[in-house]
Amino acid sequence: MIILKYLLLIFLGVTAYLAISFKEILISIIFLSIFSIVLTALYLIHNAPDVALAEAVIGAGLNTAIFMTVISQIRADEDCHCRKDD
Amino acid sequence: MINHIVFIFIFLLGFYAILVKKSLIKMVIGLNIMEGAIFYWFIAITDRGGIIPIVQSTQVAFNLNDPIPQALILTGIVIGASTSAFLLTLIIELNKFTDSTNPDQLGGIIED
Amino acid sequence: MSRIKHISIVIILAFLGLIMLLDLNKIPNQFEYANSIYHHITNNAVGETGSLNFVTAILYDYRAYDSMGESTIIFGAVSGIVLLLSRKTLPVSSHGLSFIVKRTYGMLTPFIFLFSVYIIAHGHLSPGGGFQGGVILGAISIIFSIVYGSEFDYKRYTPTTKTLLETSGALLFIGIGLIGIIYSGSFLSNLNILNSEPGSLLSAGSIPFINLGIGFKIGAGLAIIFYSMIQKTFKEEASL
What we know:
Largest sheet of chain C: none
Structural class of chain C: mainly alpha
Order of helices and strands of chain A: HHH
Number of strands of chain C: 0
Number of helices of chain C: 9
Shape of chain A: flat
Number of strands of chain A: 0
Largest sheet of chain A: none
Number of helices of chain A: 3
Oligomer: heterotrimer
Shape of chain C: globular
Distance between the termini of chain C: 44 Å
Helix content of chain A: over 70%
């Protein structure tokens, strides 16, 4: 269990770094969602199931939907230069 | 000790994003990362190594984890989600006036 | 110039991190105190509230006033977002996703609803409660907007319905608090009517009803937030 905790902590740092270091905002949002999922696993390791459930539902589910909505709103308004997907 | 180091690293990473990044949405992402770091740290340092704070029956159990920090953090997560939704709404409205989410180009609003 | 600024910011942050690390190591060990609130709650919470989940017991009984302030904050956020993004246009929908996704989600919807109601109703017995189940309730409406297009969501659950649900949830919460004044003399005190033995569904006094009120309030509030954010995008896509 302690090894799993250290692995998850390393993964938490890596996803946090990747979430702020990418230039494309969409990838950053996906990494923020992964950050929340890793945080959920860490809460479960620390025996806090209520907080884990709230973080999984809100951090990984709802926040991602709201961020995606904002991205689509802003890209509908301005002709975005960083649209490389499709 | 490892909890302190990870907390400080992720917290300062989010703070760095707020200071340096050229996009307001990136700043909100940095704010969310700071929130996550604080919540994790608070749960981790109040962990007594006990069991989940739910009992099976009415008999009093011992060696439970502390339920009070968990309740506080649960409140904080919901409030963090609603405040970040409000911040993103402000960014949408700002984007209508300035056609940009770069904080360096927001001077036009004041000069008009 | 930009590089110098960048490097100086990193150096200052590293210095700040060092100070924080030296400071955090001086936190006293709070596990050694013999008469802390932790001991009171773990010894007496089941007898005083009847809730087996101690986090729910704290959120909706010992600190229920705090939860009411939190739902007020969410109400403020919803009001601000609707005020800022009100466009007074009927939303013109996109056509949604493909047939397979629509059918699959149509079959899955009752189970998601059942899961959310389970989480809300068993908040005092198992992990979960009003906040988590309420967000799942809001997610049903959000996935409706994505999968079937926002016009379907507008016809099934109009904004008036969502506002009604949110307001009724808040009124249920405050009403239970006011009944507490009449019943035992203090706001939001635990009503001991409808109290069977701890461990059954209708135990724990007023905690399940407060859970229900908070669940409807949070779910409807988040659905309103998402709905008012999504409106203009679909209108522009349809006009292209």
